[in-house]
Amino acid sequence: MDSYPPFQKMYSTLFQDQHKLNHEPVVQELELPLIDLDQLKTGGRRREDCLRAIGKASSEWGFFQVVNHGISSDLLKRMRSEQAKVFGLPFEKKANEKLIDFSTNTYRWGAPSATSLQQLSWSEAFHIPLTKCSESKIQHNTL
């Protein structure tokens, strides 16, 4: 079974419309903002610059990457390994089963409201509210 969501099947009309327009699809690759959390420990201007960068990234992107966050490289490595296992599962299993200690609707892919290829997000993610993390029985040592 394929582990990838059925993007082409789901969005076939968008691809057909693009073909009718005789345009090449727009593909844009951008780098996410990178925030160095170590700067928050400093005082003065560097701290303020970091806070402004977080605000800007949040308002323009909605998310950002962080470095110097204090999470051990070993734990990150184990998390990436588990991530690869989950996202490598067959699509039907990810879409229909409760894979982690949260509701079945945490798995999302694509862009349901897309009306053109420019709006289409080729993404796949588990959306887990932070409040659920603190309520969960998952222990960080079990990763």
UniProtKB/TrEMBL annotation:
InterPro entries xref list: DIOX_N, IPNS-like_sf, Iron_ascorbate_oxido_reductase
Positions the record marks as coiled coil are none
> Where does the record place the Non-haem dioxygenase N-terminal domain?
32-129
Sorted alphabetically, which Pfam families does this protein's record hold?
DIOX_N
* One GO MF term: metal ion binding
| Gene3D superfamilies, alphabetized | B-lactam Antibiotic, Isopenicillin N Synthase, Chain
Q: Which domain of life is it from?
A: Eukaryota
PANTHER family given in the database record: 2-OXOGLUTARATE (2OG) AND FE(II)-DEPENDENT OXYGENASE SUPERFAMILY PROTEIN-RELATED
Name of the featured protein = Non-haem dioxygenase N-terminal domain-containing protein
